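Below sits my pick:
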Amino acid sequence: MSSLTNKELLDAGVHFGHLRKKWNPKMAPYIFMERKGLHLIDLNKTLVELEKAGNALKGIARSGRKILFVATKKQAKDMVKEYAQKVNMPFVTERWLGGMLTNFATIRKSVKKMQSIDKLIEEDSITKKEKLMMTREKNKMERVIGGIAGLNRIPAAIYIVDTSFEHIALAESRKLGLTTFGMVDTNSDPTLVDFPIPANDDASKSIELITSYLTNQILEGLQERKAGKGDDKGNEEGAKEDSGEKRQRRTRGRKRKATETVDFEQEGTAPEASKEAKAAPEVKAETEVKAEPKTTDDTKDKA
């Protein structure tokens, strides 16, 4: 995907920050100016940081690792869920449970419980009341942990829409040493994130533009991984064909040797015996030639 332009960022309102009284001084390098008590974000720096984050996410996706999407804000959760499902990545859009990463083993037990309830509901052995109660419990669990049901291990990276709002998720990620990506507004601390993206994290258009760009980068990484696997598979198949041809040559050589030995056995003579048989008539011929002059000399003496 081609990189975004300043006009696209302006139209989406990415440059709007918070009021001056709410600002975080650590965001000073990313602030362009102040206007009517409102801080404006430098979009040139946003583009630079966005490109860095996109390349890093593409590399993680190419390596086959998982990226967790986190956005529990009302204006962000639906679109973030949609983009996460587009690239088949885990997501949390309802509520961040404390210990979702640091106490991952317990969360996995809850996921297994949800899956077992789903199997029980499909059975006909339970009553209608039990089925209704189980359905309610399953829907409640699926709303909170349904997005991480397919996550079998701790993800390699996490993408957070509002780092100050999702401070618990950010703290757990930093504790476990995950690669963190996040949209940081003028009231956030960019030093807590590995790849901060200075942008307006309250406007839905701004969130959608940034998230769609990063999702497309992840999708490109997944496609490159798939293409690389296809090339490796083709090389393996070529190597298998070569080894199969070599095996066929060996079997042909063995069959040829076997047929030659069978032919010699049918004739009743080995190769060496046949050579001796050919040499025997030549020896007899030589002895006959030598014996003839002697008989002629004897006859002359008698005469």
